Amino acid sequence: MMDPSIALACRVLGALVFATAVAGKWRHRHELAGVVANYRLLPRPLAAPAAWTVVALESLAALSLASGVRLVWGAALAIGMLCLFALAMGVNLARGRREIDCGCFQSGLRQRLSATLIVRNLLLAAMMAALFGATGPLSGPLQWVDGLAAGLAAYALYRAFDQVLSLQYSSAQLRKRFV
Predict the structure, then answer these.
(1) Closest by alpha carbon to 155, among 9, 5, 27?
(2) Please, are residues 163 and 25 in contact by the beta-carbon 8 Å criterion?
(3) DSSP code of 144?
(4) DSSP characters for 31-67?
(5) 3-state secondary structure of 134
(6) Rounded distance, CA 127 to CA 82, Å?
(7) What ranges make up the beta strands (E) of 2-145?
(8) Per-residue b/e over 57-92, b at no fewer than 16 CB within 10 Å?
């Protein structure tokens, strides 16, 4: 059995990760189908419908994790999507296609594919899998504070890591340009 405040922290982290991804995809909706097509896993005509299906599913995952409604289904959806994204990245890395954008849209900067992103997704999936063992309500205000604070802190670390990866790619691009 998992401490309810840890389950809340995992829910907060997952909800924020998926909500941020959805917001980024909406913000860059004109690029979204092209990013999906660039993975070369689907026929080109299916890229746009697949891209918008991803946005819809990410929205459902974020809502479920944030609200706790159908939490097991929301966690399963989040895990499935994170593993599918990791698989898509892995296929393209195996093909030698490192320079394409991951399509996470979590940063204003481009992120190229890397094994680090695959590991990141699998770690997030493991955290969502922990929600399957979540039982029992939060017993008091301190558990709410603990869970929310831990989830927000984990999300802040996630975003900082995301920015470091983006900046690493951008600085490499600048070095190529000026060297």
Answers:
(1) 9
(2) no
(3) H
(4) HHHHHHHHT-SS-GGGHHHHHHHHHHHHHHHHHHHHH
(5) strand
(6) 11
(7) none
(8) bbbbbbbbbbeeeebeebbbbbbebbeebbebbeeb
Beta carbons of 121 and 83 less than 8 angstroms apart? yes
C-alpha distances in Å from residue 56, one per residue of 119, 133, 161: 24, 26, 26
pLDDT digits (tens, 9 = 90+) for 93-136: 999 998 888 887 765 556 788 899 999 999 999 999 989 987 67
Residue 108 confidence (pLDDT): 58
For the chain, how many helices (H) and strands (E)? Answer: 6, 0
Extract the tokens encoding 105: 């849209």
Question: How far is residue 49's CA from residue 57's CA, in Å, rounded to a whole number?
Answer: 12
- Domain boundaries defined on the chain: 4-178
Tracing tokens 């890591």 back to the chain, one arrives at 161
Give the number of C-alpha atoms closer than 13 A to the C-alpha of residue 176, restricted to the C-beta side: 6
Q: Compute φ and ψ for 119, nearest 5 degrees.
A: -60, -45
